[in-house]
Amino acid sequence: MSISSVIRCTGSYLPDRVLTNKDLESMVDTTDEWIVQRTGIKERHIAAEGEGTSVLAIKAAQKALESSGLNPSEINGVIVATTTPDQSFPSVAVKVQAALGLNPGPAFDVQAVCSGFIYALSVADSMIRSGAMERVLVIGAEKMSSLLNWEDRTTCVLFGDGAGAVILEKSESQDGILSTHLYADGKLNDLLYTSGGVSTTGDAGHIVMHGKEVFKNAVGLMADIVQEVLEKNKITPDQIDWLVPHQANLRIISGTAEKLNMSMDRVVVTVHKHGNTSAASIPLALDTAVQSGAIKKGQLLLLEALGGGLTWGAALVRF
Ligand code: ACO
Description:
The chain is α/β, with parallel strands linked by helices. It is 32% helix and 26% strand. It folds into two domains: 4-173, Peroxisomal Thiolase, Chain A, domain 1; 177-318, 3-Layer(aba) Sandwich (Peroxisomal Thiolase, Chain A, domain 1). It contains ten helices and 13 strands.
């Protein structure tokens, strides 16, 4: 009997405050036109002061739990993908565990920047397949606004805050997470980083990005990894119902869709409303498409992301 892990349900949360490109025009030397043309972003949500990443994660997790119909005692573990924890420790995951009243079990954070959710999903899938866990809450949550230099127009226009969650559970079907693919190339760590850290400057620092280089790597590496997913699973692009990409830049998203020969009406796009929410972007996009009725049970989804590290990854999922 083969064991797989399936996504039982999704949930997400966005902070109330919406920051538009027009708002940014009065903060830095930029224009709505420049931002839309280069990135596709029109607005993003920004968390309130005191509204830390754990608050976002807990709200997204609560929505997933509500829609699952499960009792909190039926969740065995929590993995949170985040680059912006409330504190160096404890993890965001233990705060989610406590807030939801879950029983003791593994709870930890995974840090792979924008690829974090794919990494967390892969770890949870392995834990379920190994028989160690029955159900794991997997969350991507970020308060990217806390890492931004609001005077740096090259980065502050790109990011937003939010959280998305899924409950992954054991299944005896052949469905669910069909394959996951994880990569990092640390030689490229200086393309995208923060200017600080606890063991160096003592503070979190700000995002620094060599945008053009990241862009070039993203287009090539995303094309390669989707090809790898197709070959490994012996499928053709026309069998994929939805591409659910990391939402960093509409040009990277449409470049990947083009490589797959997929029309944009089979691509989940939320970057115009959310900006780049790093590890939260894929579960947020997934929940948005599930709530709107676009993504339906049984459909084949290709998730893919690239982020600081550089890290990148993909997952093929029968939803
Ligand atoms: N408004 C107006 N002008 C701007 C702005 C702005 N907000 N930002 C930069 N410019 C200017 C630059 O100063 C430059 O001016 P110059 O030619 O006079 O020097 C010009 O616009 C072009 O700048 P580039 O950086 O070359 O613009 P590019 O077309 O590369 O677009 C962007 C920048 C959007 C950042 C793009 O490179 C990109 O999307 N890169 C990939 C980002 C990504 O995928 N990140 C993923 C992971 S994020 C993570 O892991 C945390």
